[in-house]
Specification:
single chain; alpha/beta; two-stranded antiparallel sheet; globular; eight-stranded mixed sheet; 11 helices
Amino acid sequence: MHYTGTIIRPPHEAKNVLLQVTVGCSYNCCTFCNIYDTPFRVSPMQEIEADLAEVRQHLPNCPRIFLLNGDAFVLSAAKLREIALKIREYLPNCRIISAYAGIGNIKGKTVEELQDLRSLGITKLTIGVESGDDEVLLKVRKGYTADDIVRECNKLDEAGMEYSIIYLAALAGAGKGEQNARRSAEVFNRIHPTHIGVTSLTLLPGSELHDDAAAGRFIESGELERARELRELVSGLNISTFFAANHVSNAVVVKGHLPEAKDDMVRAFTEFIDNYDEDALRRRRRNLRSL
């Protein structure tokens, strides 16, 4: 299999085949991220076919494939269609093709194109929206606004394409977490993600945001504020979705279906807030070795 540079995939894709169709991230401008250390490029179809032939040799009944890397959905609808048809040719039992997508990746595709891709098996996307607060989105250079999130996700809804979103707690910085959560909940209530996954900001050495923190231009939220932020987010959501703050970066682990599990989640955050130990939790965050 052809794999180049750092490989990133959602936790729920851990047991699925990873097919490299792009390398790196096409955007790669977010201030908090320096994970993708390889220049962006599109994989040649010859490489993709060679990998599909290898998968067919070892897993001929492969039911699901995740397209790498950082935002494989940046490919044109025509290119994604070509790849989906090639997957069908080599792996006729593969029924689900999934990928990371950025909001900007969806902008250039019509609802009709999205419907066509869905009919070919590209049915599940994971979108790192990170926040629904325009102030935060601008500061970390996500390249889109809250209205963009709603418009593009509504296109996915209309096309019948499933998607999950990622919220990055503490991205707003100290003193602004609960505001970020309230504004984000307002945005998320206007879309229909099947899953909201939560990670918590970890300042990555070498990233622009890490340098800003070192220079005092960004003040990192403490663990207490992070818990209050996530309690505010859960409290403000009124859509039907699966909510999971069970990533290793989260000090409070909760998961369940909303709205049924909302009260239990709020209680879990409140209990943590009432009994937290900031120093111990800071040590835990500093000692994280893997995200």
